[in-house]
Amino acid sequence: MKERILILGGGVIGLATAFELSRRDYDVTVLEKSTCGGQASGAAAGMLAPFSEIGEDPDDFFLLCLDSLRLYKQWQQDVKQAAKLDFEYSESGSLHAVYHEADVLSLQTRQSWQREFGAEAELITGNRLRELEPSLSEDVIAAMYYPEESHVFAPDYVRALEAACRHQGVTIVEHLESVEVCVWQNELLLQAADGRKFTGDRLVVCSGAWSKELEDIFGIRIPVYPIRGQICAYEVPVEQVKHIVYTSQGYLVPKGNGTLVNGASEDIAGFKTEVTEKGISRLTNWNKRIFPFLEKKTPFHTWAGLRPATQDGFPLIGKLEQASHVVFATGHYRNGILLSPVTAIAVADLLDNKQAYAPLAACKPERFT
After folding, report:
1. What's the CA dihedral at 288, 293, 299, 305 to 10 degrees?
2. CATH number for domain 4-49+155-223+312-363, candidates 3.50.50.60, 3.10.580.10, 3.30.200.20, 3.40.190.10
3. Exposure of 103 by Cβ count < 10 A (0-12 exposed, 13-18 middle, 19+ buried)?
4. Segment 24-45, tens digit of pLDDT
5. Where do the domains of the chain lie?
6. CATH architecture group of domain 92-148+225-310
7. What is the per-residue pLDDT for 119?
8. What is the mean pLDDT of residues 66-71?
9. Using alpha carbons only, what angle is made at residue 138 by residues 135 and 144, rounded to the nearest 5 degrees?
């Protein structure tokens, strides 16, 4: 008889974990309060860019992100095949752009340590920079070029993950409003707002920004907080922007459907997901310094999602010490899309009782208690 796994949360981490567990012949049920991928997952820009985003320290979090990037080529093929759906996966490469000579030194320092991890990092200036990205502002004096960095179209990726899960026999139960963990120490019993009960052998907590609600249940501190990320998009001709362009102010990501995604403006607003004029203006005020043609353009689409941030920036991934049948996989902040393959595989290995993936030592769920 197959071991029954309950997954609490149907965001990208919950769906990716369900997909991987179903491939390992577990009986998987995903429990989602609203709709799958409805918050941070579907609202993400879909960047797979650990070298651009993590420039200071090659810590365990960087290793998680780098390993996940390098899993993506095969992972996205497997998801597409199982889902019988396509989604954009672009190995566009990225440019981390700077405006001042003083910032070039920091790029060189970054290049030095990142090359130890196999980064094909090239510091480019002048004509070479304009050849790669002709529309860049003349104010940009240099950029680090990372040909390995990529991006996906997040809404379609999440839809494909859901379809792949369903095709492989995963049960997905949506619109539950709330799910209470009633019994968990020796056996599992979860109950939805409408009274439906769910039992299983193991529980994987993928509740994202709502994970803190489980503190009293499990008796540990779960400092995961919602950070509102606001994003806008412009209509641009395909190929006008060719690479992810990352700066200290934010990023711009060209999509194959002729849109340029600009993110992200972040603020603390509880669980509010409304788009604000102030939040979007933070983006529109600086993006013209990257691409001057944006001065005359107005975003055609704006949206926001909640990002589950922890106090130390590391996600919570691992078994509970007092109940090894309960596994946490939450608090991925703005890296849920990037970290979905490595998290799914790491959690499945834990449930298979394989040796724990080394960087997880920094992600213990009880570390704040």
Report:
1. -50
2. 3.50.50.60
3. middle
4. 999 999 999 999 987 666 668 9
5. 4-49+155-223+312-363, 92-148+225-310
6. 2-Layer Sandwich (3.30)
7. 86
8. 96
9. 80
Q: What is the pLDDT of residue 176?
A: 96
Residue 16 backbone phi and psi in degrees, to 5: -65, -40
256's tokens: 């194959």
Give the model's confidence band at 59: pLDDT under 50 very low, under 70 low, under 90 confident, else very high.
Answer: confident
Query: What is the rounded average pLDDT of the residues 302-312?
Result: 93
Query: What does the CA dihedral 304, 306, 309, 313 come to, rounded to 10 degrees?
Result: -40
Which value, to the nearest 10 degrees, does the dihedral of the CA atoms of residues 127, 129, 131, 135 take? -110
Query: In terms of Cα–Cα distance, which of 309, 64, 319 is closest to 208?
Result: 309
What does the mean pLDDT of the chain come to? Answer: 94
DSSP string for 200-211:
ESEEEE--GGGG
Domains 4-49+155-223+312-363 and 92-148+225-310 share a fold: no
- Determine whether 149 is exposed, middle or buried from the number of CB atoms within 10 Å of its CB (0-12, 13-18, 19+): buried
| Tokens matching residue 195 | 């009274």
Q: What is the pLDDT of residue 44?
A: 82
Cβ atoms of residues 97 and 151 within 8 Å: no
Tens digits of per-residue pLDDT, 195-222?
999 999 999 999 999 999 999 999 999 9
pLDDT of residue 359: 85
- C-alpha distances (whole Å) from 21 to each of 40, 202, 341 are 22, 12, 12
Q: Tell me the β-bridge partners of 191.
A: 180, 197
